[in-house]
Design goal:
Structural class: alpha+beta
Radius of gyration: 37 Å
Distance between the termini: 55 Å
Oligomer: single chain
Order of helices and strands: EEHEHEEHHHEE
Strand content: 5-15%
Shape: rod-shaped
Strand order of the largest sheet: 3-6-7
Helix content: 40-55%
Largest sheet: 3 strands, antiparallel
Length: about 180
């Protein structure tokens, strides 16, 4: 750092100082902006900057992807390598992905009803009318369980992937709570 002489008080100070420490006169050398070196022209046009994503309802740029809102709202409490507990914020719960359907619950209910029907059959061994009705009920339950399982499986294979893809491309406006796909 070279020293310069102040023209007013004739004291010497650094050329990097914004003003003279004695009299306060602004330093002309420190006040002058440094010129940036010119970059060579490569002959390429600068790429256009994409506009920020905005909510179509309110115009706010405070938008976030639903998958990110969901992931950021999850807290996991761990002890060592094991996850002990987890919690979700209300915003994260509202941004949850679609769930696959589970046909196990319908099968469990149908199994319970079938067990009751089997008990009726075993209790009414001597009555052919009650036995026939119980067997028809069991047959109808088995058909219903198979139908539900096929329906849930078909939904999981064909409908669920589209819903998950739509969820993954959906954005949430944090100002007006609007969900949209750009």
């Amino acid at each position: 750092m070279p020293l310069v002489t102040c023209p007013d008080c004739e004291k010497r100070h650094s050329d990097a100082a914004p003003a003279c420490p004695e009299c306060g006169r602004p330093n002309a050398l420190a006040a002058a902006p440094a010129l940036a070196p010119a970059l060579p022209d490569a002959g390429h046009a600068q790429a256009a900057v994409a506009p920020r994503l905005a909510c179509p309802r309110c115009g706010s740029t405070e938008v976030r992807k639903l998958s990110l809102v969901y992931r950021e709202g999850t807290t996991r409490i761990t002890a060592g390598a094991d996850v002990v507990a987890s919690s979700r914020s209300l915003l994260s719960l509202g941004a949850a992905p679609p769930a696959m359907r589970d046909s196990a619950a319908a099968a469990e209910v149908a199994g319970g009803v079938a067990a009751v029907a089997l008990l009726l059959v075993s209790a009414s061994v001597g009555s052919p009318g009650v036995t026939a009705i119980a067997l028809v009920v069991i047959l109808l339950l088995l058909v219903a369980v198979a139908s539900v399982a096929v329906s849930e499986s078909t939904w999981n294979r064909h409908v669920y992937p589209g819903l998950l893809e739509e969820w993954d491309s959906t954005f949430l406006c944090t100002r007006c709570d609007n969900r949209f796909i750009p």
